[in-house]
Amino acid sequence: MLNTEARTIEADVLSRRCVLMRLAEFSFDKFQEALRQSAGAVVIILPQNMSIMPQDVIQQFMEIEPELLATETIVPVYFALEDDELLTIHEQTYSASVSQGTASAAEVLLHTATANGFQMVTSGAQSKAISDWSITSLEGRLTGLGGEDLPTIVIVAHYDSFGVAPWLSYGADCNGSGVAALLELARLFSRLYTYKRTHAGYNIMFFVSGGGKFNYQGTKRWLEDNLDHTGGGDDSLYLHVSKPPKEATPQYAFLKELETVTSNRFPEVKFSMIHKKINLAEDMLAWEHERFGIRRFPAFTVSRLESHRNSLRTSIMDMRSQIDIRKLYRNTKVIAEALARVIYNLTEKGAPENLQIFTEQMQLQEDQLSSVLDWLTAQPRAAQLIDKDSTLISTLEYHMNRYLKDVKRHYVKADKRDPEFLFYDQLKQTMNAYRVKPAIFDLLLALCIAAYLGLAYLVVQNFGFIYNMVRRITLKQKQH
Domains of the chain: which residue ranges? Predict the structure, then answer.
């Protein structure tokens, strides 16, 4: 619960105050200053349209976010999208905060008697842990020509997002773009697998995982359950691996086909492989393919990001405006063409390096890719907001059923004795702002009332004396 007076960071005293800061003026030093002065709460005001913000401001906040998450504090931190009313409150609070720091004592007293302030109030129960939360993942497959014993290629993308404020975590690039690309790949290869003459000798499984931002819990549980049964932003594309692939292996072939497709069809793309060993001493894995690597399955991650430490992966600034749909389309096409060359063994069969498979009626649909991404980024997708009955899950399931066979759900619940993750309720609060006079105004008003009552008392007690004095003065004036 919160019931404190509003101030901006410019005020001299922040103790037990609700500190309002706009994104453009926010910094970690200012945040630390509010904590040092024992502020009652901090409200960070974000613009409705992030695309209008300068890129350096967005980048600065993304770099601060991990520090905010790592800073342990009892001070509640709120994030609010700005509107006219909130901006008016901030403007008036800023004026009051600045004037108090530069005025004389008399001016401060006068300002106190005349100015209006705002009391910020929230109510609600204490946040509680949700003990029975399920993380949902979805699986669908295309069965190759020759039965179930064929080698299987698994294409994975996690759908959940992450950021310092769950209700503002839209995860456009991480990983809305990955899910949009996966669904487009499912559509393309389902058409190839419809006809016998284009049916490949590989099973392809598509896995949309949940809990990706919580150490890839959906993939971890799926591998545990199925181990005995299973075999857009810039001009860079990276293949992240835990172990460099050996020659004459399918993964080596895929690496070479990616190089072939990018060099022949998209020379502007800088493609390279990045090798990073799995660090089991770390609490969090770097990439989702490491879940497979731990189980000794050959796997890799294709990403436009060079490092797993890129701040965009865990930021509320990962918005739709950050995605260039044309480059996402190009990168999806690179993956689709390279994968097709692998499963049809086109290089060994002597097919030209510049051969295109997905053309004419079989080409990628940029409009559909864009529509799926728009839909995904129109809603926050933090894992603690998406239960098994959510519209997001049912819509993803519907999309996968259009193209794939045997679509089914997988659920993950935290271990009750040693939970791998723990979610809490009360992720959104309504804050009311009441226009009030500052607290010291009550004291001044009380003094004025006391003085008035005291004067009235003296007049009543000495009415005869005062009456005689007034009468004498009046008579003297008449005589003159």
Answer: 2-128+428-437, 134-413, 451-479
